């Protein structure tokens, strides 16, 4: 089983739609969670951290479910500019910080 | 520019040649990571430095790969006797860690795209 698993998609959604992605992780000792955004042929950039209580940043909401070992990203009122690949990132600190990426979920917002 | 910089941005090499990439992290960052990314995949972890110490090396990193961070600042990744399967984007990232439980963001460079022909 992969350490971090994501549905690669693509998710094709119309502008204005709400879309949600999940990401599961296998190491129950994982400590920090992030969503990164990667545009085509560009480097990944941090979208948002994921906190235990859940957090929201504008149209984006991230949730963490430690019991079921998954995190989610909800995007409301999708914009064309949201089209990108969304990478789930999980870190584990066992003497050093190991940062593991999921394969990424590709989102295409359609006019 | 105070972000992570990588050099070169693109490299085309013939199979069997050696290549070396450089990464300059954000100056105060003590943690440095190398990842490899192929088309349609997420970044795959290669190796990790805390200051000048290489603390982890992925099984993906064969004996042909070596990484250094001699003074805890910039890092180099060398690939010897390149193979076509080495063609990928090589990403460097850095972060500031001050303990085991630091929830810190990793900042990425723009990557070095390697093509082995």
Give me some keywords for this one:
heterodimer; A: 111 residues; mainly beta; 6-stranded mixed beta sheet; 5-stranded antiparallel beta sheet; globular; B: 117 residues; 4-stranded antiparallel beta sheet; 11 strands; 0% helix
Structure explained in plain terms:
Chain A contains no helices and eleven strands. Chain A has 111 residues and is an all-beta fold. In chain A, strands 2, 4, 5, 9, 10 and 11 form a six-stranded mixed β-sheet that branches. A five-stranded antiparallel β-sheet of chain A has the order 1-3-8-7-6, with no helix packed on it. In chain A, strand 7 and strand 8 form a beta hairpin. The mean pLDDT of chain A is 91. Chain B contains no helices and eleven strands. With 117 residues, chain B is an all-beta fold. The mean pLDDT of chain B is 90. Chain B starts with a strand and ends with a strand. The chains are: A mainly beta (111), B mainly beta (117). At the A-B interface, strand 5, strand 9 and strand 10 of A face strand 4, strand 5, strand 9 and strand 10 of B.
Task: Produce a short descriptive summary.
With 111 residues, chain A is mostly beta strands.
β-strand percent of chain B reads over 45%
Question: Which structural class do you get from the secondary structure elements of chain A?
Answer: mainly beta
> How would you sum up the major sheet of chain A?
6 strands, mixed
Largest interface: A-B, 26 and 29 residues
Give the helix level of chain A as a range of percent.
under 10%
**Rg of chain A, Å, rounded:** 14 Å
Per DSSP E runs of 2 or more residues, the count of β-strands of chain B stands at 11
Order of helices and strands of chain A: EEEEEEEEEEE
Poorly predicted segments of chain B: none
In whole angstroms, the N-to-C terminal distance of chain B is 33 Å
Query: What is the residue-averaged pLDDT of chain A?
Result: 91
Structural class of chain B: mainly beta
- Helix count of chain A? 0
Counting DSSP H or I runs of 4 or more residues, the number of helices of chain B is 0
DSSP helix fraction of chain B: under 10%
Q: Tell me the quaternary state.
A: heterodimer
Helix-strand string of chain B: EEEEEEEEEEE
Query: What share of the residues of chain A does DSSP label as strand, in percent?
Result: over 45%
């Amino acid at each position: 089983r992969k350490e971090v698993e994501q549905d690669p998609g693509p998710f094709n959604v119309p502008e204005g739609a709400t879309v949600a992605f999940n990401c599961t992780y296998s190491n129950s000792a994982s400590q920090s969670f992030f969503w990164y955004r990667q545009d085509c042929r560009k480097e990944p950039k941090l979208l948002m951290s994921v906190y235990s209580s859940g957090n929201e940043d504008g149209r984006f909401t991230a949730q963490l479910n430690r019991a079921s070992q998954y995190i989610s990203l909800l995007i409301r009122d999708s914009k064309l500019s949201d089209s990108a690949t969304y990478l789930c990132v999980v870190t584990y600190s066992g003497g050093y910080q190991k940062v593991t990426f999921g394969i990424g979920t590709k989102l295409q917002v359609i006019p | 520019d105070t972000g992570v910089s990588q050099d070169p941005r693109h490299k085309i090499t013939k199979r069997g040649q050696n290549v070396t990439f450089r990464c300059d992290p954000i100056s105060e960052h003590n943690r440095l990571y190398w990842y490899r990314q192929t088309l349609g995949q997420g970044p795959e972890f290669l190796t990790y430095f805390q200051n000048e110490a290489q603390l982890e090396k992925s099984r993906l990193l064969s004996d042909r790969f070596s990484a250094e961070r001699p003074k805890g600042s910039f890092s180099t990744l060398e690939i010897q006797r390149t193979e076509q399967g080495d063609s990928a984007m090589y990403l460097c990232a850095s972060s500031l860690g001050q303990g085991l439980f630091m929830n810190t963001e990793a900042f990425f460079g723009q990557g070095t795209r390697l093509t082995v022909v």
